[in-house]
Amino acid sequence: MQDLEKILENNKIKPTAMRLLVLQFLLKKKVAISLTDIENHFEKSDRTTLYRTLQTFVNKGISHKIDDGTGISKYALCEENCHCEIDTDLHLHFRCTNCNETICITDYKIPTISLPKGYIAENVNLVVKGTCNKCNGNKINFLN
Q1: Residue 137 class from Cβ within 10 Å (0-12 exposed, 13-18 middle, 19+ buried)?
Q2: Residue among 108, 67, 74, 114 at smallest CA distance from 91
Q3: How far is CA 110 from CA 16, 94, 130, in A?
Q4: What is the CATH number of the domain that holds 31?
């Protein structure tokens, strides 16, 4: 638990029991998860507390929120030294249309996009939809 506490403290988050549990849960996940997924895992927890915990993690840069086109926000931990900055930290997300999992593909960064004068980007989200390598039954060299 001490490493978890250090992660929270390094991000200026008070390490409460629920925050530590949610962080531990997110660290074990290889895919982005919804508030409902977390709520189902922590059956006796209050949905509002879980939501506030996730929002705190997003606001402090521990995790990021993903709009994968399903209408349900998903959450995933950020990479180390990520600041969720549009120019440097945004990466590709892949949503499998078979198993419905959303996966961060952090090796593929979203390129900088030049907008017309007067436009200001606040968020960039790139989601590729298709069949993941697990559902496809073999390893695919992504984007060849």
Answers
A1: exposed
A2: 108
A3: 34, 13, 18
A4: 1.10.10.10
- pTM summary value: 0.81
Would residue 10 count as lying in a domain? yes
Structural domain of 77: 2-136
Q: Does residue 142 sit within a domain? A: no
Residue 71 clears pLDDT 60, i.e. is over it: yes
State residue 123's pLDDT score.
78
User: Does the residue 141 lie in any domain?
Assistant: no
Asked if residue 144 is part of any domain, the answer here is no
The rounded mean pLDDT for the chain is 86
Say what the pLDDT of residue 82 is. Answer: 64
* Structural domain count of the chain: 1
- Comparing 69 with 124, the larger pLDDT belongs to 69
**Residue pLDDT, tens place only, 78-93:** 876 665 655 556 788 9
b/e 115-128 (16+ beta carbons within 10 angstroms → b): eeeeeeeeeeeeee
Nearest residue to 74 via CA among 111, 127, 24, 7 = 127
Residue-by-residue DSSP string for 56-68: HHHHTTSEEEE--
- Token pair, residue 51, equals 């939501």
